[in-house]
Write a structure and sequence with these properties.
The protein has 214 residues and is α/β, with parallel strands linked by helices. Helix content is 41%, strand content 19%. 37% of the residues are buried.
Length: 214
């Protein structure tokens, strides 16, 4: 099965994804800060390093076939523009550098749905990450959720009636689908699908696909 290198393994999505991949027989090397190895799910190989500095973990990427990059500022908001540039963008640059040097066969990148009227800085940073990935020449899967519902992330449930309404109106239907809500379970399954069916070239998993893979 696949040997996966993952950043963000202790986060909201990584904590769900690692056990699922292990259950399916994949091997996981997960980047973690010093002193935080206990936060990783049992069964994966912890790699101590700094997500903002590729040199601290690049050696451990060698021998892996898939790189999953999940690092990002938690609970994004317009007030976190500086953090997006200093953490999301720099960590993506470091991850792509390490993966390129290790001749990774498939890179999986967590981006965000766009265009959208909100979260301009967040979208700009994630779009830059997508472009760096394309420029690298690696095969890649780019996932573009808008908001992922799960434990501690449920406030947008109140917006579900409005989403339903906007999907009924032709002029707003496309945007409502592109910027729709997905569940943590749906995201986990989409990431598993990306691992087990590697891309040739660059492909996009958008909200409609994450909800209902064809």
């Amino acid at each position: 099965m696949t040997t996966v290198f993952m950043t963000g393994g202790t986060g909201y999505m990584g904590g769900q994804l690692i056990p699922e991949l292990l259950k399916r027989g994949h091997s996981i090397r997960a980047l973690v800060r010093r002193g935080s190895t206990g936060r990783l799910p049992a069964g994966c190989d912890p790699i101590v390093g700094d997500a903002l500095d590729a040199s601290t973990y690049a050696a451990a990427v060698r021998g892996c076939s898939t790189f999953i990059h999940l690092v990002g500022v938690s609970h994004p908001s317009p007030a976190k523009a500086k953090q997006f540039r200093e953490i999301d963008l720099v960590s993506a640059m470091s991850a792509i550098t390490a993966a390129t040097q290790a001749s990774i066969a498939h890179f999986i990148y967590l981006s965000v749905a766009h265009p959208a009227p909100l979260m301009k800085s967040y979208i700009e940073v994630r779009t830059q990450g997508e472009q760096m990935l394309r420029d690298s020449g690696m095969n890649a899967t780019i996932l573009r959720p808008w908001y992922v519902l799960g434990p501690g992330h449920r406030w947008p449930c109140a917006l579900i009636p409005f989403y339903w309404l906007f999907r009924q109106i032709p002029v707003t239907r496309t945007a409502a689908e592109r910027l729709g809500l997905v569940t943590l379970r749906q995201m986990t399954q989409a990431l598993v699908r990306a691992v087990e069916s590697p891309a040739q070239g660059v492909r996009i998993f958008d909200v409609p696909f994450i909800r209902d893979p064809k």
